[in-house]
Amino acid sequence: MNVQKSFGNASSTTPEQGVLYIVGTPIGNLEDMTYRAVRTLKEVDMIAAEDTRQTRKLLTHFEIGTRLVSYHEHNKRQSGSELIRLLKTGQQIALVSDAGMPAISDPGADLVSEAIGQGISVVAIPGANAALTALVVSGLSTDKFTFAGFPPRDKGTQNEWLDQLQMQDGTLLFYESPHRVVKTLTAMLEVWGNRKAVMARELTKRHEEIFRGTIEECLQWLAEHPPLGEYCLAVEGAAAGAERSGESLWWSKMDLESHVAHYEDMLGDRKSAMKRAAQDRGISKRDVYHAIMKKSE
Known about the structure:
The chain has 297 residues and is an alpha/beta fold. The chain has 12 helices and 10 strands.
């Protein structure tokens, strides 16, 4: 059990220990920065940054002279241990990422976990977040949503990952690079069908662009307008897609054998094809296997 009183004399952190501050930074426009974030970065003993070059530009703009150190995916084990040691000696440390809230699809999550494990208080200084910003301007449902981060790069692993998300009934949120966004959208179209989708890039910047349409329309747009910048993708969930009037599931007119054959052509593996067909229809893979075997007898 861990109970943290973040402010005042009742804090669970001992007087000898410092506090790890998780500080949100701009996702594009420098005015995304909050007054509290600026004050905190000025008051702490040290700032741990994902990319010190990028963060130094931010600190210079806000006239913040606090010591800056590096903490990123490739040095997180060594750097993280040192940051924990300093926190335990009473140092106050702020963690920032290149943009937005640290610890979201970010190595900062490991530092937060380790600090909590060591009994060190972790305090969030909230700020902008690209995924939530994209969600609220998407026009898709905000009642329920799932943030899934960056899709896997390997096609086989990606298809399995998309399979697992296929029946989620809330809006799905992703990050993707300009080099991979077309491949990812193509895979989504193959696995999920042509759902409503939104592509948001350059959020809060001067050239902010939000494309709303279907997955097919997103791909058509990207064919005519080469991808630029990092993308936030928002895709409607399974329930929303099924509820759209006048639109049926792409496989609804297929018999089970044709459904499996479709996936076998696409995946080159009958076992995986039966699994995908079973997920589409909400039945067990065993039922699919027995139905096909019975028909072939």
